[in-house]
């Protein structure tokens, strides 16, 4: 960022620490332990992670070197995170049986979804903070899956180094030629051959697969294509990186970003052979695993997006107070249209946060089924909100906003993908709308009918004609009954 | 409603009672007492008030009779409300010193703003429920004002019958030729003459002034035009209806609705003389009173709008399931665009509710000053949301939606005015944006500068050049430092 | 309007006459004759019709008198219109065979759809101008229908007095319990009995039926329910007002407006008997007639809406320059948000106008079939645009905007119905989208495939590998072929 | 594109050639010569340019090589363009005095702004077509400037090779620390020293400066800082690439895209010395030149954006008809929400095109001053429209839409910058709103006042009371006069 125009001059200000900015309505749900950690996280993210981002970018190579090696600044941030007690906060203690091992790696978990959600918002302020405290997707979901459904062997081989942040992992679900929003469309084939499983097919958008440290993939495939229940046709298996036949084709870009060194890979499976013991949970139970992964994952994504939106709002506020920007004789902070943007962004960010936190509490209450609507609301509302807020900040920065001199353009591009990942908005809107329309049909029709009937009784009781417009024009305009 | 096309046929459904539909995040804030009342209110509103609305409308006269008399069905509903223990729920017990009198009238108050907010949502489902349990604006705010600032004499003469629901009241603030969004623009003159106060000027949008039972007006006027503090120039006084010189000019319509028998009056003050003892709180303290009125009032308005939006959503759901509406061979509930509307409305209603409830808690926490932003958010977000939701329901009903056969058109028109009343949205957006932009300037600039500085230190420490795009094209492309 | 607050003081300005404000791109299509008339119409509308609106409203009775009689000021305006040569401009000369009669009534027709469209915009500035020059719906469409499809007898009895502006007419299509957007849903029964036709069923939204001068209804009914072609099941007939069994039930309101004395009627047909000679065009040809009616009618509606939007814009400009409105120390015209509204409205009005004019030319080019898309665009774009523009003007007027003191609230309510009338927006959007998606499928897929194929040939020819992101990470990263 | 999933299978379709798709309303303005060229351009763009884009991308190097060399496929396309008579179409013949030279390079110019606008739309379908026929920005504007204001020497040295497509050029206006939307903020200093001019300062967003063939920059600077007229303080000069002291700092990215080999450069001027003869037009006349450049340039940009939007629409249509995409049992083309997107995009594209074409005609009519509003409309409406249309196409493609497998993500990012370039939307909206609000104040207020006055006269003439709502409630309710 050092060639970029200098920032406007101004003294340091202060804001209340994160623990004191929790919305009034959410406060009863946050433990003291979580409050303390929130303030540590915020300080670490703002003072150590964000400034390290430019160094991280500079440590990534160019040309073919771009996909090799690993920025050392991130390893240092990881060390520092563990010193601060910031490690694996995402992992609910109850999902992980081998506590000794978990504790060995300094796990700071055991938080509710609401509490970790508040932390995820702070992590979302930085592009590298989540990874630096071992809370980055898809590792978080993958660790949960192995902790819940993996065998002791799986845990030893994959979960232990993942918990330690020594390796990373991929999650292979989406396929290039399918409407992946409908899980029953998966077509990568998993065939049993003796004690082996043989995989053939294609996956893409495997985020993180470019990373040299990515050592294990969780892969969803079609194992029982003839099963009558179309949601029991799929299984999930563990495929080590480097397995023969697993070919990384190419990396995909997000708008113009290649996201090296992690990247988003397009991968082909050409007779990839793994031991049958690499199966997770059981044949035909892939969707079961996938479902459990979704709720909390969506909360995390949503809260990180909110964190990004807050960063955008702060860049915008700084810009509006930049004393060198005086178009048409009036500083930017005097332009009513821009002030309205700030206000709208504030309302939209805050209402999204409440929606997500309410969904988190619903999950925490243990009734994931009843949280379906709340999670969908969080999924639908948040990325669009964040894109809108960030785009306002881009626009207020002019040409500076679309280039590398602020984090805005990159944040926008990456949050834009969340409107697509894990089902496009339209699928979630459709399901939410369908559910409400169907489930409440009887109730709504019934009530309106009952009200109409009661109303007619009242007309009789009060002996009043049901006057309608029209006066003498209306034929037979007399008392109604 | 009886000439309207019949409703679609379907059995009665059921929904969980109101007390069980409180958002998870708000539950810690609702007492058992409030929960019980919520369920009673809901039942009463849906089963008794809403069906009585058409009778109420029919009991209002036509032509010149339109502004005389009073629908008897409403008096019966009032009686019923008191039987059910639904009376004056809006009034916080602490504001009312003479508890004996309050209790005599069956006051069911003592609720927090959050609790009463949840009740107001249910009352907002009906156009007459609020009045039927003595919780209608502007009486609510007026009673609070007299309870807080009135003398024993004021209370005896006006508060007692208001609490009993025997009389109604008006609140005269807005003036026709002013930008009323700025309180310092008030120009109705209040002049002291001996022991009297003499009022001259003009007020409009005095809601309820058409009602025969409207007996007292609280009037804001300019009493000290030369005061250096422009917010100390105004005073508030009590003017009894029928005082000589107080002339109701005409009634104003809202879109095409005249809202008889209450109406919205344009009133002229022509040397209206009242005793000086009718002054409230003290000379120059009008704005002080006005400010205290705003917070809770905005919560009530917002929650009633949410109640109306829920009713619209229910009409829409009933419509989508109407078996007689099969355009182009597909029932309405199969049309994706309409399902998306239902989903969006659900998300928008629920997020608005959380914003308002959070603001209510902030007020309940006793820190009205710090609730400024939250109240503004509720004020900005809710009426626009409700108008949008209702308009979707209108559109899905086709021609039926714009006429008297549903409550939709009327609800839309009245909630549309809330985007203007008490300051147009744009004023609130501007103030909210300005506050955030100014208050956070130092903080945001400071943090970005500190981050930049830390980043530069890191570049030195890691001895990495700050690579920028351009490769060999860039002159002097070497390590940065 | 006389009790309303006075208008801001300012001198009279001037604008270029209508003929000089025709968009550059439309100028080649406007004859000198039309240009001259445009300027006369504008002057007459602005200087005579608009000022007469308040008198018209005051001449309509109250209570039961509301639906009787006829405002004399309108008859005077009609007289004046004929003096100015403004009469029946809507009627294309070619549709009317008996020119002598047409000319006798001072018909100023023979204009193209584009030319009359420009006139309709000016007429749409006033609520009464269209009727005052005998160009009001539904008479315009009805006159065209009788001119085209009526017998000599029909013409003598109904067309002659309609052309003379002595009677008015209704058009009965929409039914209360149907998805009327799909014409094949019509259910009012037309049964042949000897030489008679017997009608049974129900119609609503019969605009103008409240008017004492409304003497003839064109009614669409179901005459051949078993016809295999579902668009040949309907017929159109002429039913004189006052026929036995034709019962006006009640009048419908539009957002509180009853639109007396014309109104919108809900009508029942109870064994209404008419001579078979009242059939138009032929049995089963109702849809054929209906279709021909739609194109030009939609252009007229759209252009009138644009005229209303221009009036709203003018009220808004006047408001922003009102010297008495200085909220927060800055006149309204200095508030950036409001200036942006003015600008957006200007862009939206002007682009809508071009869309409608382009559709009009497409119809004028004689190829109504190919104008389908263009007409749909005009139908979709214009009323939503006009509602948006008017709503901005309402909001900028504050409380004044929603009441009777400006034409804004009423204009909004009535244009809001155009988003529903003649098929809700969603039906037109769906059909437009479906048509483009289907018709262009082959073309679009074909071109993309051909481009891909050519691209692959070029890769071979240029001997260049199809590099993808990923560098050394990608297995088998070599030249592609 | 060859690793991307294959396109859906379908036969080639056909569409009417470009010359037959000109909107009806624009047809009178297009010459036969232009029509012929339109069809050639369309074929060449679709069949030769678009397929070459992937080869072009592959010919750009990686790593440091990225900014060197030049894709040979583009040189071949240039050759082909000249064979087809497609060269320098942008240049109005009248601006270029030395016709012989112009003709020598196969110039196909002499078109109106409307005609070239239609061509630009077709060129905008491809990322490389404009350059391939020597019609790419900023060369187009630069050639016009030199043709108009350059000396014979300038023309010989720079215009001749630019016309021949042998070199390229840059335009340096925007500065990093300024609100560049206000031209008077330019601060790069131009100081006279003897017969030299010395430049000091900084410019960024110099598009094309990365290109090896970029040989000349037109630079705007501050030459007379004390001039009372702040728009006469600036001058424009010609600075050859490679001049000592002109340092390319770095290249800027656009949402991750580096746009190599052209790029967007950040350039420092450190005592750059040029002969005073490199001054254009005269001291202090920089703004004069800049103004003349804007109108046509905005039309070109706008039309190219429309071309891109059409491509996005075609990708979307192909996607909706992709037989492999059947989410939830229904092909995408049956999903109502997506069909509505197609329809809205069609309406928005077509209305934007009419707005731009109307502006082009206004310029062609020779009255650039009166075209101010029309050009602003085109500038405001088009890029936002195109971004919306493209974003719909992205969303309908799911993950495929954000990566390199379609042109959508890249098109979006680049058109997004047009909402900023040459003044952000908000500046243009503000100016447009301000102009209309001010210029029409007198006219609008005057007309409303005159109408009110006439209305009052009519009330007297018709002897009717100005009834207002309120009936007997209103005191003194009698005839008004």
UniProtKB/TrEMBL annotation, chains A, B, C, D:
Residues 32-166 form the Acyl-CoA dehydrogenase/oxidase N-terminal domain. Residues 1-20 are annotated as: Disordered. The keyword Oxidoreductase applies. Its cofactor is FAD. Keywords: FAD, Flavoprotein, Oxidoreductase. It comes from the Eukaryota. InterPro entries: Acyl-CoA_dehydrogenase, Acyl-CoA_Oxase/DH_mid-dom, Acyl-CoA_Oxase/DH_mid-dom_sf, AcylCo_DH-like_C, AcylCo_DH/oxidase_C, AcylCoA_DH/ox_N, AcylCoA_DH/ox_N_sf, AcylCoA_DH/oxidase_NM_dom_sf. Residues 284-435 form the Acyl-CoA dehydrogenase/oxidase C-terminal domain. Residues 171-272 form the Acyl-CoA oxidase/dehydrogenase middle domain. One of its GO terms (molecular function) is flavin adenine dinucleotide binding. GO terms for cellular component: cytoplasm. GO terms for biological process: fatty acid beta-oxidation using acyl-CoA dehydrogenase. Belongs to the acyl-CoA dehydrogenase family. Homodimer. This is Acyl-CoA dehydrogenase/oxidase.
């Amino acid at each position: 960022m050092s060639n970029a125009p200098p920032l406007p001059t101004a003294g340091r200000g202060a804001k209340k620490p994160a623990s004191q900015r929790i919305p009034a309505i959410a406060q009863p749900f946050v433990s003291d332990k979580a409050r303390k950690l929130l303030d540590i996280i915020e300080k670490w993210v703002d003072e150590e992670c964000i400034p390290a981002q430019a160094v991280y970018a500079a440590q990534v190579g160019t040309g073919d070197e771009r996909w090799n090696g690993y920025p050392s600044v991130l390893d240092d941030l990881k060390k520092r995170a563990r010193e601060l007690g910031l490690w694996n906060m995402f992992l609910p203690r109850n999902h992980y049986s081998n506590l000794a091992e978990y504790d060995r790696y300094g796990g700071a978990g055991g938080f509710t979804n609401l509490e970790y959600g508040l932390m995820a918002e702070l992590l979302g302020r930085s592009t590298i903070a989540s990874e630096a405290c071992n809370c980055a997707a898809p590792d978080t979901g993958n660790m949960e899956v192995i902790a819940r459904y993996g065998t002791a062997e799986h845990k030893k081989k994959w979960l232990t180094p993942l918990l330690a942040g020594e390796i990373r992992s991929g999650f292979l679900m989406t396929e290039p030629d399918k409407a992946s929003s409908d899980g029953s469309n998966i077509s990568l084939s998993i065939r049993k051959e003796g004690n082996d499983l043989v995989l053939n097919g294609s996956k893409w958008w495997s985020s993180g697969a470019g990373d040299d440290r990515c050592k294990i993939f969780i892969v969803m495939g079609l194992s029982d294509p003839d099963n009558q229940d179309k949601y029991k046709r799929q299984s999930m298996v563990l495929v080590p990186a480097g397995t023969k036949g697993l070919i990384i084709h190419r990396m995909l870009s997000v708008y113009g970003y290649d996201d090296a060194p992690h990247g988003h890979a397009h991968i082909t499976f050409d007779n990839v052979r793994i031991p049958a013991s690499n199966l997770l949970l059981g044949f035909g139970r892939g969707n079961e695993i996938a479902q459990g992964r979704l709720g909390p994952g969506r909360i995390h994504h949503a809260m990180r997006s909110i964190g990004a939106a807050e960063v955008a709002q702060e860049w915008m506020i700084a810009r509006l107070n930049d004393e060198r920007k005086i178009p048409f004789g009036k500083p930017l902070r005097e332009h009513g249209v821009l002030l309205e943007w700030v206000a709208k962004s504030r309302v939209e960010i805050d209402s999204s946060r409440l929606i997500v936190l309410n969904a988190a509490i619903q999950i925490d209450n243990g009734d994931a089924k009843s949280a379906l609507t709340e999670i969908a609301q969080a999924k639908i509302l948040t990325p669009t909100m964040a894109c809108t807020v960030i785009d306002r900040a881009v626009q207020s920065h002019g040409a500076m906003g679309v280039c590398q001199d602020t984090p805005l353009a990159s944040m926008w591009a990456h949050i834009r993908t969340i409107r697509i990942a894990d089902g496009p908005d339209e699928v979630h809107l459709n399901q939410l709308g369908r559910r409400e329309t169907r489930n409440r049909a009887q109730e709504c029709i019934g009530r309106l009918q009952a009200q109409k009937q009661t109303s007619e009784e009242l007309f009789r009781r009060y002996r009043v004609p049901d006057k309608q417009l029209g006066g003498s024009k209306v034929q037979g305009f007399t008392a109604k009954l």
